[in-house]
Amino acid sequence: MSIASNGLLENRMKYKLVLDHITKTFGALKANDEVSLHARKGSVHAILGENGAGKSTLMNVLYGLYRPDKGCIVLNGREVRIENPGIALDLGIGMVHQNFMLVGRFTAIENTILGTKIKGIHLSLREPRKRLLELSDSFGFEIDLDQPVWKLPVGMQQRVEILKLLYHNVDILILDEPTSVLTPNETQQFFDVILKLKATGKTILLITHKLGEVMTVSDYVTVMRDGRVITEMATSEATTQALARLMIGRDVLFDVTPEQATHGENVLEVKGLCAVNDRGLPALDNVSFEVKAGEILGIAGVDGNGQTELAETIVGLRSLSAGKILVDQVDYTHVSVSERRHRARIGYVPEDRQRRGLALDHTVAQNMMLSSYNKPPFARRGMLHLKEIRHQAEILVRRYDVRLHDVGQPVRELSGGNQQKLIIARELRENLKILIAAQPTKGLDVGAIEFVQNTIVEQRAKGTAVVYISTELEHLLAVCDYISVIFRGHLTPKMSLGETTSEKIGLLMSGGG
Ligand SMILES: Nc1ncnc2c1ncn2[C@@H]1O[C@H](COP(=O)(O)OP(=O)(O)OP(=O)(O)O)[C@@H](O)[C@H]1O
Ligand SMILES: [Mg+2]
């Protein structure tokens, strides 16, 4: 063996896991271009990068969902081939996807042992229960193992996912944007869990867009841009601003130019709205508010307090059990979705982009034209004008900086953040009277968040009445004229930013105040 390869071997032995010059292409696109990453035992390694930088692709290679074109994976000093997730699990590598993969009607115990190889015909739950309880206790999880998973709050479902991996004895955990669905409180508990995992020698690979989080919980950070690694460094040597700059190649100001709002008449009036959620339980209790032209009303609240149902009721996707919705004093309470969209000119950025916002198997161009495909210039005399559709889609994609290969690509192939940008591009392009934006910044990188915030402010300047729903108080405070808090289906009266503080709003969000 040569000295050089000896040195390489030593280098590899130093790490729990080495991703060595991984290249993964999709057609002409290099999603990962010679990407290397070195993760140590008992550490948290953050992976940071713009939307579409290649983070999920890299983790999918590690988890055996994609085969790399080039490069290798070295685990405990030995090269391994990971051809599918089953092999990854056997090697001690587990992944929690951004959209959880739990089966809702099964309990935590049943979900955990799903996929376990069964010996014989009977599957006893006694042994698994004992081990799960021990594991759950030692990490302070406090999960009710016998509840069907859909009844558990999101933070707890996430712990079930993690518990499932621990039950399978993984020692490398891949977490793809784990905190984007958590409340501030749950995020804190999640950090505690991470620290405990680390203390027991686990290696955690953490994808996140939240720079503060990287600074708080990670030991090392790899920054990616355009499929390549820009840097791999100890977090102690980084700052938030430096990371942002490395990530997007320019300074991010983290603030938005406030425009003076010119308030007009009440455009949207919601009166005494009541509605139930998908489980048939009350979700909105007598909700009333008004928004004027050129005004942004922020609705702050922890996920699951009725904000989804509120947005869906206003745009007509959910029926209401009581109340009224007026646009310019005209009653729209029982008008179809399409009429609300075209006649009342209500734009809607839905929170669940995959379920409500996009047709994943259709092309980007088709998705951009959803809902206006039957109008000129896209259709003439009953014929779709395909070239025009393509052309318009290309313009929008450029303006909104949606990163993709070709507007003829299926939307499924876009990165999570770029799918979100696509919806925003589609919804904001028309001449809107009202914009309902539900979590428009979810899953976006810092540069894209800044862009979306500015776009919302531009809408206000054009006289649109904006309802901006978010769990991120910081984002709301940056652009809103007024803020209301929603908690368990109740909405507080609107407060102007002068008369309230972020502490007060935070308290209201958790039901206090
Ligand atoms: N199955 C696929 N087919 C074609 N292109 C793909 C596929 N999966 C990913 N890509 C492309 O690879 C690039 C990297 O995507 P990836 O999902 O890894 O980004 P990401 O860093 O996770 O972004 P985000 O922060 O938005 O989730 C993107 O341009 C994406 O469109
Ligand atoms: Mg991703």
List the helices and strands and how they pair.
Layout: H1 3-13, E1 17-26, E2 29-39, E3 44-49, H2 55-62, E4 70-75, E5 78-80, H3 85-90, E6 93-96, H4 108-113, H5 126-138, H6 154-167, E7 172-176, H7 184-199, E8 203-207, H8 211-217, E9 220-225, E10 228-234, H9 240-248, E11 266-276, E12 282-292, E13 295-300, H10 307-315, E14 322-327, E15 330-331, H11 337-342, E16 346-349, H12 353-357, H13 364-369, E17 379-380, E18 383-384, H14 386-399, H15 416-428, E19 434-438, H16 446-461, E20 465-470, H17 473-479, E21 482-487, E22 490-491, E23 495-496, H18 502-509
Parallel strand pairs: 3-8, 3-9, 6-7, 7-8, 13-20, 13-21, 16-19, 19-20
Antiparallel strand pairs: 1-2, 1-4, 4-5, 9-10, 11-12, 11-14, 14-15, 17-18, 21-22, 21-23
Describe what you observe in this structure.
There is one protein chain. 34% of the residues lie in helices and 25% in strands. The protein is of the alpha/beta class. Among the domains are: 246 residues, Rossmann fold; 70 residues, no CATH class. Strands 13, 16, 19, 20, 21, 22 and 23 form a seven-stranded mixed β-sheet that branches. The longest helix is centred in the middle third of the chain and has 16 residues. It starts with a helix and ends with a helix. The site of adenosine-5'-triphosphate has 19 residues, from β2, α2 and α15. Adenosine-5'-triphosphate binds next to β2, α2 and α15.
Instruction: Give the uncertain stretches in residue-range form.
Output: 1-6
Question: What is the tally of beta strands?
Answer: 23
Major sheet details: 7 strands, mixed
CATH topology of the domain at 3-248: Rossmann fold
Helix content: 25-40%
Strand-residue proportion? 15-25%
**CATH C-level label of the domain at 3-248:** Alpha Beta
Class by helix and strand content? Answer: alpha/beta
- Report the CATH superfamily of the domain at 3-248: P-loop containing nucleotide triphosphate hydrolases
Radius of gyration: 24 Å
| Discrete helix count | 18
| CATH-derived architecture of the domain at 3-248 | 3-Layer(aba) Sandwich
